[in-house]
């Protein structure tokens, strides 16, 4: 297998091209008036943006990029900040989805959430009580596993 493919429907093509160029640290290999294609070698990803008048009913919980160290998580966070992309919901040593992880989140122009994460170890519990990922503060909005407070997802699916 050479590339995984994700085709994302967007309502703001130019803003999305700018965002994803910064997110991936690469320019699209093809741009049309209603389409853009990024072809990434690492990770092997054929990622396309498809312009639509309206985006609704998307069943995607979030997207993620798993990296090889906490330092790499922070390097991506710093790179995005330097490029004007705000990050949010940083979690260090969080237990989520049966894994000990370091991560942060970012939203694209249409509100799709991306998680950059490093899995330190597998654990025997889905979450710890202080984990914002799987068990938020009781006063906070309801957050299901591997979701941020701005969204919820199918409780039967989870990341690792």
What does this structure look like?
- The strands form 2 sheets. Strands 1-4-3-2 form a 4-stranded mixed beta sheet, with helices on one face. A 4-stranded mixed beta sheet has the order 5-8-7-6, covered by helices on one side.
- Residues 134-160 have low confidence and may be disordered.
- With 160 residues, it is of the alpha/beta class.
- 16% of the residues lie in helices and 34% in strands.
Derived from helix and strand composition plus strand pairing, the structural class reads: alpha/beta
State which percent range the strand residues make up: 25-35%
Largest sheet: 4 strands, mixed
CATH architecture of the domain at 63-122: Roll
Overall shape? globular
Percentage of residues in helical conformation: 10-25%
Unreliable sequence segments: 134-160
Number of helical stretches of at least 4 residues: 2
Layout of helices and strands, plus pairs?
Layout: E1 4-10, H1 13-24, E2 30-32, E3 35-40, E4 45-51, E5 63-66, H2 70-82, E6 88-96, E7 99-107, E8 113-122
Parallel strand pairs: 1-4, 5-8
Antiparallel strand pairs: 2-3, 3-4, 6-7, 7-8
Task: Write a brief caption for the model.
The chain is of the alpha/beta class.
Keywords:
single chain, 160 residues, alpha/beta, 2,3-Dihydroxybiphenyl 1,2-Dioxygenase, domain 1, four-stranded mixed sheet, 16% helix, globular, disordered C terminus
């Amino acid at each position: 297998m050479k590339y995984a493919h994700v085709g994302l429907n967007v309502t703001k093509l130019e803003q999305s091209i700018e965002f994803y160029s910064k997110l991936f640290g690469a320019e699209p290999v093809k741009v049309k008036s209603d389409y853009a294609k990024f072809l990434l070698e690492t990770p092997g990803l054929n990622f396309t943006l498809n312009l639509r008048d309206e985006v609704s009913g998307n069943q995607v919980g979030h997207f993620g990029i798993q990296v090889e160290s906490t330092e790499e998580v922070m390097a991506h966070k710093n790179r995005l900040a330097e490029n004007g992309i705000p990050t949010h919901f940083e979690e260090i040593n969080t237990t989520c989805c049966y894994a000990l992880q370091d991560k942060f989140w970012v939203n694209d122009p249409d509100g799709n959430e991306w998680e950059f994460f490093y899995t330190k170890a597998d654990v025997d519990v889905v979450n710890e009580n202080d984990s914002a990922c799987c068990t938020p503060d009781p006063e906070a909005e309801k957050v299901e596993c591997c979701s941020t407070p701005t969204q919820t997802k199918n409780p039967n699916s989870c990341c690792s």
